[in-house]
Amino acid sequence: MNASGKSKTIRLPLLGDMAVSFGRTLLGILMGLVASGILIAISGANPFTAYGALLRGALGSRYAISNVLVRASPLLLGGIGVALGIKSGLWNIGMEGYMYLGAIGASVVGVFDLGLPSFIHIPLCFLFAMAFAAVWGAIPGYLKAYRGVNEVTCTIMLSYVAIYLTNWVVSAFPPIAEIGAFYPMSKKFADSALLPILMRGSSLHAGPFIGVLLCLIFYFILNYTPFGYQTKLLGSNPHAAHYAGVDARKQMVKIMVLGAIIGGFSGAIEVMGLNRRVYMDFVTNVGYESVAVALLAGGNPIGVIASALFFAALKAGGATMSIETGVSSSMNSIIIALCMLFVIGVGVADGRRQQKIVDNSKDDESESKELETAKGEV
Fold this sequence. Notes:
By secondary structure, this protein is mostly helical.
């Protein structure tokens, strides 16, 4: 404690900062669940019974858990792509479009039996998916970095273009489309291009585990590599990044393209692991849910894991909650929205508290300097 009786801030190491960040997120989620419980009670259902049913639907059996993991797969990868943008000060919210372009890219080589073994055919599908998505992501990256176009508007508009382009490909492009099918879809992927199912009787594939691995890898990249340092510096202080020698324009393009590559990879996993072909509107709203996942995680790649699993559990258990308790199926979306609002609110309140501490610290420093000056004059 200093002479004025005010406490000084305690600087925590990286692990401590992460714990504080998770603490804020958990507090916001808890408040959101309490508020949602009140709404459930108002609707005439017992909130404890409703949450119990939700937990059983999400975690009640190994098949329920596998369902949660499958649902979490695109959210993990999409969340990472958005989180990278958040760390660099960019809103790369075109994940849905990248997923569709990745699916198209994978189908270009995936629907044909090329006579290749799986260990060659599968990586080839991924390469085409990432290449298609990278080109798509380079467009808003270039427009933002070199022409000053708002990346939010650009990525949203391009996502619509990607969705309708995919719909046309699976409806009327003969080499890929299943012409005459009851629903717009591509031809079935060749067996050598399909990801194996890891648990019999379920849809569990390697996607969620790949997503978790990539979250850990990007956590390391952001915190322990020059690329990660430049990315975070660009997001926290663009002027400091400029004076540190960071080429902001190139870094912006890299971040947008990298996010697009991850999104395309996610789309390829969905069609090669879960759907086994490309359907029209096969990932409706998943790209935008990825934005919510990244926000809930505060842009932290480790937090994306917990956030994606939380969202997937709510989606998987929501049907059971609705069937057993009569709660409207829209309550799922309400729970997610309230949790998001409270997490953001807690973050804003804590940010103001920290700013107040910083301001007080500056006042203390100025008082100390004035005292030293007065003593010198005496």
